[in-house]
Amino acid sequence: MLEQLKEEVLRANLELVKNGLVLFTWGNVSAIDRASGLVVIKPSGVPYEGMTAQDMVVVDLNGKVVEGAYRPSSDTPTHIELYKAHSQIGGIVHTHSTYATAFAQAERAIPAYGTTHADYFYGDIPCARSLNANEMDEYEVNTGKVINETFEDKDVVAIPACLASHHGVFAWGKNADEAVYHATVVEEVAKIAFITENLSPVTKRLPQHVADKHYNRKHGKNAYYGQN
Fold it and tell me: In this structure, what CATH number is given to the domain that contains residue 68?
C-alpha cells in the first residue's frame, strides 16, 4: 500500500539526519496521499539507522493505523491536524533543530532580518502560543490546533513553517522532500538571526520593499530566479 509514498517518506526522514536536523530519534516526516486520505509517517522511536520503507506506518485522518508493524510517531495527531486544515500541505517535518528550537523555547518568532530569510518565508516564522494546562490531555492534537490558530491570518504556502512553543519546529511543503527543504532553511535562518542579534541587538527587520522583491522573484507571478 502506497509503496512509492513510503519510499519518499523514508528518503525524507534520512535527509533530516544528512542535513544535521536531528539527533537520535528526535524528528519525523510524513506525507499524505490526498486521493485516499491516508498518511505515511515514521514509526515512533525507531532509529534512522537501518530503517526501511516497510517500517513506515500508514494511518487514516482519524489516526487509525491502516498498515504497519510499528506504532506511528507520537506527533502523528499534530500532522493530521495540519493536513485536515490545509489542503495545500502534502508533506510535514518535525524537528528539534538547535537554533530554531532555541527560538521556540524562548517563545519567539524567527524575525525576517535579511534576504536569505525573505527568499523562502514571506515574513517572520511565527511561534504558536503555549498550550495551557487543560490542553495537555490531547497534547499532540492541540499542538496542531494552535499552529492552525496561528495561521488563521497567515498563508501556509508563503510561510511554510511554525515554531511550537517550548517544543520545536514544524515545517511543510507540497511533498515530503519540500518539507525537509523548508525545515533545513528554518534552521539556517534561525542560526543567522541568532548571530545577527548577538552582533547587533537593535537590528531592524528587513524593509518590506526588499522582502517583497526577494520573495516574489522566486515565488511571485513573474518569478525569474532559477531556470524555466
Answer: 3.40.225.10
Q: Report if residue 228 sits inside a domain.
A: no
- Residue 173 in grid coordinates: 511543503
83 assigned to active site: no
**Domain annotation covers residue 21:** yes
153 is catalytic: no
Q: How far apart are CA 84 and CA 36, in angstroms?
A: 13
Number of domains in the chain: 1
- Catalytic-role residue among 55, 119, 124, 212: 119
Mean pLDDT of 217-227: 91
- Give the span between the Cα atoms of 7 and 101, in whole angstroms: 28
Rounded-to-integer distance, Cα 220 and Cα 181, Å: 19
Domain that holds residue 85: 3-219
Which pTM does this prediction carry? 0.95
Give a yes or no: residue 142 inside a domain: yes
Q: At what angle do helices 139-150 and 76-85 cross, to 10 degrees?
A: 30
Q: Please report the pLDDT score of residue 201 as a whole number.
A: 86
225 within some domain: no
- Count of Cβ atoms closer than 10 Å to residue 36 Cβ: 13
Q: According to the model, what pLDDT value does residue 165 have?
A: 98
- When pLDDT is cut at 50, 70 and 90, the band that residue 137 belongs to is very high
* Whether the predicted pLDDT of 84 surpasses 80: yes
